[in-house]
Amino acid sequence: MIIPLGKIIKIIKSQIKFFKNMKNSTLVSKMLCSAVICGLIFAGCGGGSGSSSGSKSGGGSSKSAVLGSIPAIYKDFNAKMVALEEKGKTAKDMDALVKLRAEGNALVKKADEALLAELKKIEGKEVPVSFSKALTDGGNLFYNVGQVKFNPGEGSSIKSPGLEVIADVTVRKNLNITYKERDNYIVYHRLVTTDGITLEKGSSSFFKKSKSTDAYNNTVLSYTEGESILDIHFYPFDKHNPELWAKFAGIEFITKEEYDAAQVVK
Q1: What is the per-residue pLDDT across 2-14, written as a single tens digit (0 to 9) for each?
Q2: Which label site among 114, 146, 154, 213 has the fewest CB atoms less than 10 Å from its CB?
Q3: What's the distance, CA 125 to chain centroid?
Q4: Does residue 17 surpass a pLDDT of 90?
Q5: Which residues lie below 8 Å from residue 4, measured CB to CB, with a gap of 6+?
Q6: What is the pLDDT of residue 61?
Q7: Radius of gyration of the chain from its Cα atoms, rounded to whole angstroms
Q8: How many whole angstroms separate alpha carbon 87 and alpha carbon 264?
Q9: How many Cα atoms sit within 13 Å of 177 on the Cβ side?
Q10: CB under 8 Å, gap of 24 or more: what pairs does 111-114 form?
Q11: How confident is the model at residue 213 (pLDDT cuts 50, 70, 90)?
Q12: In Å, how far are 73, 95, 168, 206, 234 from 230, measured between CA atoms?
């Protein structure tokens, strides 16, 4: 959680009062104390991990059928960091602040270890993929999607969980289209919860060029059955709202109309 400017000012004012009461303090000791305060403010928020207290999902377990214990790890970490920040606001001396920062570093280390252990558990795990009924029944499904699996990146940490997944999209059958028809061949998708809430949505086009001459617009572009046309990158987690993402159910491919109507909940 990024502490609001007003709160930071209050903390600084309280420390200024502390400085004035310090006997025989040197400029160096004051600068050191200020550095500890700043370190606590920024290290304490876990790189912007935030508090889940504002989650629209309400209470309940943060255990996830898809993400395992990752949401629970963040829920616990966020709550402990918020509590540590509250203690920092009432710290009376530099020793107390140094102790709090050490506690914060220990929390980060413990959370990193728990996260890496959980990432190993879900590595290679398949992310559920589905197609909306409107898409399959409407005759607009011109593509297939291969298996989508978790493959956590190197250097993952509590500040950057590294939960990127990639969907390989291939042509369902031989396709011959002109460039000017490209808007009819866009892949729409959303990340959904178990109760149908849209967590994120997006659209992807496999047309990379943007020429607009009549000659180019009428050029026929051919794709053969099974040909790979897209790699869509997804990031199925938000560390700021672990309780809501505990309900993450998978990736759904949808129609343009469903895409336009989908309301994203943060």
Answers
A1: 444 444 445 555 5
A2: 154
A3: 18
A4: no
A5: none
A6: 57
A7: 25
A8: 35
A9: 17
A10: 111/46, 111/73, 111/76, 111/77, 111/158, 112/157, 112/158, 114/69, 114/73
A11: low
A12: 33, 55, 6, 6, 13
Residue 206 or residue 224, greater confidence: 224
**Identity at 36, one-letter amino acid code:** V
Closest C-alpha among 141, 139, 121, 117 to residue 129: 141
Distance, in Å, from the CA atom of 14 to the CA atom of 188, rounded to the nearest integer, reads 52
What would the two tokens of residue 176 be?
């011959």
Please write the tens of the pLDDT for every residue from 226-264.
999 999 999 999 999 999 999 999 999 999 999 999 999
DSSP the chain: -PPPHHHHHHHHHHHHHHHHH-TT--HHHHHHHHHHHHHHHHHHTTTTT--STT-TT-SS---BTTTBTHHHHHHHHHHHHHHHHHHHHT--SHHHHHHHHHHHHHHHHHHHHHHHHHHHHHTTPBPPEEE-HHHHHTT---EEE---B--PPTT-BTTB----EEEEEEESS-EEEEGGGGGGSEEEEEEEETT--EEEEEEEE--------HHHHT-EEEE-TT-EEEEEEE----TT-HHHHTTEEEEEEE-HHHHHH--B--
Token digits of residue 130: 């589905």
- Tally Cβ neighbours within 10 Å of residue 263: 7
